[in-house]
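re: ur question from yesterday

yeah so i grabbed the chain u mentioned. its 186 aa long if i counted rite. heres the sequnce exactly as i have it in my notes:
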Amino acid sequence: MRQLFTTILILPAFLLLLAALAADRWVSLQDDGLHDPANPAIKILQQPAEALSVLQPDGAGNGVNWVTALQLGEIDPRSSIENEIQQEMLELDVIMTDTLPLPYVIFSHRPHVEWMTCDLCHESVFVSKIGENPMNMGNILNGEYCGVCHGAVSFPLTECNRCHSVKPENINIAPSSGAIVERDPL
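ran it thru and got these structure tokens back, copy pasting raw so excuse formatting
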């Protein structure tokens, strides 16, 4: 019980420390090469460190764990420019097994559809049919398929273990790429 109480006290302090350390990683608007530092309006814009350091820290990409921040209600993104679009919540995983020598890839729809509507990816980025998306790391690194977002607006492609996370012996599917697995209700 004492250890639990100590953990409860130390964890928030640790998260604040991580956020403070991560604040150094964001370039100010004056120095980012995108904003005109001579424009007087730059003084009223929120600096990245001020905006991002209060969100869940991450050791990769821009230093924010966006999925956790969303789950904790720290952010509430719109899934579409048109607010009236009702987002479909899809509890469906796709397991890609043609990944040797790396672990299989699991693509979970849920964290993606919490951010955006299905039609942003289907049918332009991904075809909704097994075997119709000839993905490999070469085309992903070239900005196709997963590479449309990952490496640009989502965690970088250098975080291999975030996708390549399923050891073959831990799943019970036929060894063909693109097997669809219904997720158990949470």
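noticed a couple things. The CA atoms of residues 16 and 175 lie 44 Å apart. also The helical segments are 2-22, 48-52, 66-71, 109-113, 137-141, 160-163.
anyway ttyl
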